[in-house]
Design goal:
Blueprint lengths: L4 E6 L2 E6 L9 H16 L5 E6 L24 H10 L4 E5 L2 E3 L1 H8 L2 E4 L4 E3 L13 H9 L1 H10 L3 E2 H7 L4 E2 L6 H14 L21 H13 L4 H14 L2 H16 L2 H16 L17 E4 L3 H12 L4 E4 L3 H20 L5 H9 L1 E4 L10 E4 L5 H14 L5 E4 L6 H5 L8 E6 L8 E5 L6 H13 L3 E5 L7 H18 L3 H10 L6 H8 L1 H9 L13 H8 L12 E4 L2 E4 L1 H13 L9 H22 L5 H12 L8 H8 L1 H14 L1 H7 L4 H8 L9
Parallel strand pairs: 2-3, 3-4, 4-6, 5-7, 6-9, 10-11, 10-13, 11-12, 13-14, 14-15, 16-17
Antiparallel strand pairs: 1-2, 7-8, 15-16, 18-19
Helix pairs in contact: 1-2, 2-3, 4-5, 4-9, 5-9, 8-9, 9-10, 11-25, 12-13, 18-24, 19-24, 21-22, 24-27, 27-28
Bound molecules: nicotinamide-adenine-dinucleotide (NAD).
């Protein structure tokens, strides 16, 4: 018997424990071990029922993701046929589910006739997040257990649900009284089944999964949701699999599911999403910082400034149960900030994602003050005041006076030099940038900006605390705009320039959303505020001193008070959130083009795509070469989680590899020649891109 399985015969029961740390991933060896153990139990006449459980509590988090896309993913014993075989055993199988049953792990449980879980268990079919669909019976057995509509919603959302909800839906038969009692209660359940001669599998609850639904349910479902799926393949395949569950006998449905699974697994989108999965794991590894480095304790946080960002940052900590002192300049600003936080929580209560009691608990963790003395016991202070170096340095000097030794002093600046801020205090080793994205209580990305003096344990501690508050931390070095906003600059520059040359904001944004980005550049600038981008540009005019012609459009809109959505007019005209093209902006572009001697022409979508995307990619490669980003995949995470780049394209760097680095280099060289003086100035290929192409490489990494 394999080391991966604990097999025990216990008074008529075969107890089969899965033991493959850390999550009982169902790789080929584990599948073989489960299969062998179940066959042994099936053949042993002393065994009357079989229990599958996780030796260390956790049941199974599903497939081994490193196998996906390789030959061993479906190599024998493959999961689909292993599970079919389990359903053929003439003895009751009970899945005793601890902690997690996800993806293939839940499919394993569904192949058992009976399921009991501990109360804290989370259950889900999360394949959609990897651009896949459940391929081992999930799309066929689940609808027969809980009906087609509930199954469809669960599989398409990839949501993890708690044990109680799973029981109400009908996925679980029972919930054990506690984690420690799970195995004992599973045993008792098995004896009950034996004593009442229960069948190996109970009759299907929903033999007709679509019963009660309109005949055109699937057609209507597709029509209603297609636009939200954009060009994603996996949701479409999920719906096809569910359609088969409604129309075909189980065996045929399983064959159809497997064919659809193979299609998804071989797709570029799934490959990209698997890249993102591994990128997230890797982002936590920082060369030179060992995982056993002692961390600083963070039990109390302080936030300076209760404005848009400070409020959202404070919420992120309070929501994770960490007390926060919020410091403001005036009582009125403080009251306003706290009221805004309450309003945001109230919106969650209305949406039923938070209870009224949780709201009060969170508000109780927030303590407002005007007095720096109240920050003396904070372990981490995050400054989120206005974007002005002198003011930030003054705040840091005040913090230096009152804060205890060992406190981490962070700034949420979006563009200022973290090292210059650190220079204002006597302890620059404790200073770091924590660049949250707006709205800070919602957005997952956190750029952790390491200054030249930042101590390793300050980096490690902030990476850890970021995880604790549900963020995805990505390390960046110090430069103007860090990873994300620095790449935004050339990308947005091209968008502006294209409008001067004859494209419209709608056309440019259309090309970008056509690529499945959440928003085009101009809608994004309108949402963030044209005043905000103006001020950032204004603080960095030296970078554009040799040619700021392309900025003129944004600058003029700013001068006209067209600040974007908040003023109802920006690059677009707004009625509420509805936007439309504005003739005035087109006329302004024509006038500016004439002033600047830019000849106007009709511009193809391909040119828009290439100029915006190639410049974005080029800047990312440059950042990698400079060491601002540790790895290309970190850049992908920043753009996916901070700027709405589609995860199913894998992020801009992964997308670049798909397009081909040689194609990107030759595109940049082409535009350099074609765009005259402007091209000469701005279309400069990153040296690393040239080196990679010269070396015949198509993987973006340092060379
Ligand atoms: P904001 O104007 O909404 O809030 C700033 C708050 O700081 C105000 O309430 C103000 O009263 C308070 N304040 C000003 N000086 C202070 C001082 N000396 N002591 C205490 N409080 C003081 O600004 P915001 O949008 O929240 O931006 C704050 C910081 O976050 C800026 O550095 C900005 O660049 C950065 N940032 C903003 C965004 C964004 O999208 N808004 C995103 C990332 C980072």
């Amino acid at each position: 018997m394999s080391d991966l399985i604990h097999y025990r015969l216990d008074d008529g029961l075969a107890l089969i424990g899965l033991d493959r740390a850390p999550v009982n991933a169902l790789d080929q060896s584990m599948r073989a071990a489960i299969s062998e153990a179940c066959e042994r139990a099936a053949a042993d006449s002393r065994v009357q029922a079989i229990i599958l459980y996780g030796v260390h509590g956790l049941f199974s988090a599903g497939a081994d993701i490193t196998e996906l896309g390789t030959d061993i993913s479906l190599a024998e014993p493959d999961l689909p046929s292993t599970l079919v075989r389990l359903t053929e055993i003439h003895k009751p199988l009970v899945a005793a589910i601890g902690q997690l049953a996800l993806g293939g792990g839940l499919e394993l449980a569904l192949a058992c006739g009976y399921r009991i879980a501990e109360p804290g268990t989370r259950i889900g079919l999360s394949e959609i997040h990897l651009g896949l669909l459940p391929g081992a019976g999930g799309t066929q057995r689940l609808p027969r257990l809980i009906g087609a509509e509930s199954a469809l919603n669960l599989i398409l959302s990839g949501e993890q649900i708690g044990a109680e909800r799973a029981r109400i839906l009908g996925i679980l038969d029972r919930i054990a009284s506690g984690a420690d009692q799970l195995l004992d209660e599973a045993r008792a359940y098995a004896y009950e089944l034996i004593s009442c001669s229960a069948p190996a599998r109970p009759a299907e609850v929903w033999p007709e999964p679509a019963e009660g639904l309109p005949d055109d349910f699937i057609t209507r479902y597709r029509a209603e949701h297609e636009s939200r799926w954009k060009s994603r393949l996996a949701p479409r395949l999920v719906v096809s699999a569910l359609e088969s569950a409604c129309l075909l006998p189980l065996e045929e449905g399983l064959a159809r599911e497997l064919a659809l699974f193979k299609q998804a697994e071989a797709s570029r989108q799934s490959k990209a999403l698997r890249h993102v999965f591994f990128a997230e794991r890797e982002a936590a590894c920082i060369p030179g910082i060992e995982s056993d480095l002692p961390l600083r304790k963070i039990e109390k946080v302080a936030v300076i400034g209760a404005g848009t960002m400070g409020g959202g940052i404070a919420m992120s900590f309070a929501s994770a149960g960490i007390p926060v002192v919020l410091l403001e300049l005036s009582g009125a600003a403080l009251d306003h900030g706290l009221m805004q936080i309450r309003k945001n929580y109230e919106a969650s209560v209305k949406r039923r994602t938070l209870t009224a009691q949780q709201l009060e608990q969170r508000m109780e963790l927030l303590f407002g003050t005007l007095d720096y003395g109240d920050l003396s016991d904070a372990d981490l202070v995050i400054e989120a005041v206005v974007e002005k170096m002198e003011i930030k340095q003054q705040v840091f000097r005040s913090l230096d006076e009152v804060c205890k030794p060992g406190v981490i002093l962070a700034t949420n600046t979006s563009s200022l030099d973290v090292d210059a801020i650190a220079a204002a205090v006597s302890r620059p080793q404790d200073v770091i940038g924590l660049h949250f994205f707006s709205p800070a209580n919602v957005m997952r990305l956190l750029e952790v900006v390491r200054g030249c003096a930042t101590a390793p344990e300050v980096v490690a501690t902030t990476m850890k605390i970021a995880k604790r508050i549900g963020k995805l931390p990505v390390l960046s070095g110090v430069c103007f705009g860090f990873i994300g906003n620095r790449m935004l600059e050339p990308y947005a520059r091209e968008a502006h320039r294209l409008v001067l040359e004859g494209a419209t904001p709608t056309q440019v944004d259309g090309v970008l959303t056509g690529l499945d980005l959440n928003m085009g550049v101009f809608s994004m600038l309108d949402l963030a505020g044209i005043d905000v981008s103006f001020l950032i540009r204004d603080s960095n005019r030296t970078a554009t001193a040799h040619d700021d012609s392309y900025c003129r459009l944004g600058d003029e809109l700013y001068a006209m008070g067209r600040y974007g959505q908040k003023s109802g007019r920006g690059f677009y005209l707004y009625e509420g959130r509805n936007r439309q093209e504005d003739g005035e902006v087109v006329a302004l572009s024509e006038r500016l083009a004439a002033d600047l001697n830019v000849s106007r022409r009709s511009i193809s979508d391909q040119e828009i795509h290439d100029r915006c995307l190639f410049m974005l990619i080029n800047e990312g490669i440059q950042l990698l070469d400079e060491g601002i980003a540790l790895r290309a995949s970190d850049i992908d995470l920043v753009w996916i989680n901070g700027y709405g780049f589609p995860a199913h394209l894998g992020g801009p760097m992964h997308y670049a590899e798909h397009l081909g680095l040689d194609k990107i280099l030759s595109g940049i060289q082409h535009h350099r020649r074609a765009l005259g003086e402007y091209g000469e100035i701005w279309f400069r290929p990153a040296s690393l891109l040239e080196r990679l192409v010269a070396a015949g490489r198509n993987r973006i990494e340092r060379l």
